[in-house]
Amino acid sequence: MLIIRRVQQNDIFPVIALAFETLPERYNPSIFTQFYESFPEGFLVALTNETIIGFLIGIKTAPDTARILMLAVKDTYRKKGIGSSLLTHFIKEMKQQNVTRAELEVRTSNKRALRFYQSRGFLLQETLQRFYQNGENA
């Protein structure tokens, strides 16, 4: 059974491990605690059998705007609706906070992620040159 809920303090280390396993960027681990402390409403985890298999971190950047910073799902659980469930829960939470716009960046080379977001109503706005640590565009 899939459970989506807000992150809890004891989830931070498993989330860091999952981020390291699934995301190409290498984030300072302290950033996860900062998001947990500053905007827990936007930090969601997906669990099955009490194991974290995915997470989403988002923040409000303006009273009516949210930004999704990270979305990751363990490789063996991809294409099972977990990313969609995390995104749906995040958008529902943001709507309760009067957010009407959600933004994010995706690597231009990550065609799967681009299709995922576009199929859920996100629109390509612009290309950000050399956005990522390795110089890749977003």
Describe the fold and architecture:
The chain has four helices and five strands, in the order βααβββαβα. With 138 residues, it is an alpha+beta fold. Strands 1-2-3-4-5 form a five-stranded mixed β-sheet.
Widest sheet, order of strands: 1-2-3-4-5
Strand count: 5
Overall, the morphology is: globular
Helix content: 25-40%
Number of helices: 4
Q: What is the CA–CA distance across the termini?
A: 34 Å
Oligomer: single chain
Radius of gyration, taken over Cα atoms and rounded to an integer in Å: 14 Å
Sheet/helix structural class: alpha+beta
Provide the residue-averaged pLDDT: 93
Largest sheet features: 5 strands, mixed
State the order of secondary-structure elements, H for helix, E for strand.
Answer: EHHEEEHEH
Bin the strand percentage. Answer: 25-35%
Low-confidence residue ranges = none
